[in-house]
Design brief:
The chain is mostly helical. The protein has one domain. Helix content is 65%, strand content 0%. It has helices spanning 8-34, 40-69, 90-98, 109-119, 127-132, 134-149, 152-166, 176-180, 192-207. This is RiboL-PSP-HEPN domain-containing protein.
């Protein structure tokens, strides 16, 4: 059952707890692989699962804080938030945003930016964090869709992410799990999954 939030801090704390749990799981998988308790294929599969579950937890966090901001809840800096909606409560806010849509997309940066402009004055405090991380978040969304759908469309977009990483089309297409364990281009001490964790933590800190 989806929780009905009343505090930004509660949504943040729950997300942070789950993300730390998944990060710990990843570290243990790395140890098990080094100890040959996991095969490379198993490691790739588990890495995809960690990424997908982390992404889902982040989507839930964004949904929660966005709906709370439409109720003009203050953020962790105690800033005033101006909403163009006047919902009665958390559930009512979600109903107003959903309207006639069957599903509200909380993983598209472009849609979240547009939604923030529509429902929150100046898009604050959602628009700026999303605008500054739009490219990275869009790439992660592509990885998420490739894991979830593995369709011709998702593969076509995934190849674009690989081309940006390699600088050319790869001779063989790695699984998403394999890609996530490749060395980071931005932090020499990270692999791509750790960059993803860093981005989620940064976004959560800026949105809370």
């Amino acid at each position: 059952m989806v929780r009905k939030r009343i505090k930004i801090s509660a949504a943040y704390n729950d997300f942070n707890k789950e993300l730390n749990r998944l990060k710990s799981f990843d570290r243990q998988n790395q140890i098990n692989f080094q100890n040959r308790s996991l095969s490379k294929k198993q490691l790739h599969f588990l890495t995809e699962s960690i990424f997908f579950n982390s992404f889902r937890e982040y989507e839930n966090f964004v949904r929660d804080v966005f709906l709370l901001y439409t109720q003009e809840k203050k953020n962790s800096n105690n800033d005033n938030v101006k909403s163009y909606l006047k919902p009665k409560d958390f559930e009512h806010a979600e109903q107003l945003i959903q309207s006639s849509m069957s599903i509200v997309d909380w993983n598209s940066p472009d849609r979240i930016i547009t939604r923030s402009e529509l429902y929150l004055k100046d898009g604050f405090p959602v628009k700026i964090p999303y605008s500054s991380n739009r490219t990275k978040l869009s790439s992660y969304r592509i990885l998420r869709n490739q894991i979830a759908h593995n369709s011709s469309v998702s593969l076509k977009n995934y190849i674009k992410v690989l081309r940006a990483y390699y600088g050319t089309n790869p001779l063989t297409i790695p699984s998403v799990g394999e890609y996530l364990l490749l060395n980071s281009h931005t932090n020499p001490h990270n692999y791509n999954l750790l960059d993803f964790f860093d981005t989620l933590e940064d976004m959560a800190n800026r949105l809370k």
